[in-house]
User: What shape does this take?
Amino acid sequence: MTDMAELQKRKLPINLSIVHVDPDAFLASFMGWLEITAFITAQRAGTAAVPADGVTPALSAQDLATPGVQAVANDALFAFCMTAALKGDVAAVDAVDAGLIASFGDDYPGKLAVGYFRAVNDNPILLEDFVGQAGRKWLKGDRPPPPLRAKEDWNAGLRFFEKARKSNFIHEVLYPLARWTRERWTVIVEKEPAFLHHIEDNLPILREALDDPRNDQAFIANLLLKAAPAVDMELTDEYEGFLRSLARR
Assistant: This one.
């Protein structure tokens, strides 16, 4: 079967591996995801026809090196590394990295994504740089002291939010991110409020935002919006409007 039904069938296991940070399940579903996305892309471009046997074609080493397949691989690995970072599960990232090296060699599809979470980058420029540096800290357990923690968590949460919204795995990353956001800001509000700006004004606003029981995009957007003054972050009118629109249900 080489159609959208097969795409959905192959996406489900990789979705679950990302949500649950399961390296074995990710490795088992990774190639199947690359194959079906590459085939459907080729069909849409008019360069591939449905095989007579209905089996999705395998990818050659040359296919794996193409920009389209690399982009899909990087997206999947970035999503996995993001949810692993939210749990501080460096062992899961190590296991996926080792498994892919064993299967494809050192220059495996998606290696670039993992590299963002490995390298030290003191001058981040791209969104991926910022996400990778925040993720690397969480994977290493490298937390700043409480006076700096809330602002760093706000910035990192924003970058993860922006990156997730560009991914094929938006929902699979946003749910863990919403849970992480709730956990982190509950700690900040209950145990570290002394380091927030204008505490008397912002604490009630933050508590109200945390009262929302749903772990979804709207919750994250609203929390980022309401927490910005508390960490002395000034949003542009355009970006404030953007977050406000996402916070609506």
The mean pLDDT is 94. The chain is about 70% helix and 0% strand. Residues 23-44 form the longest helix (22 residues). Residues 121 and 133 are 7 Å apart (CA to CA).
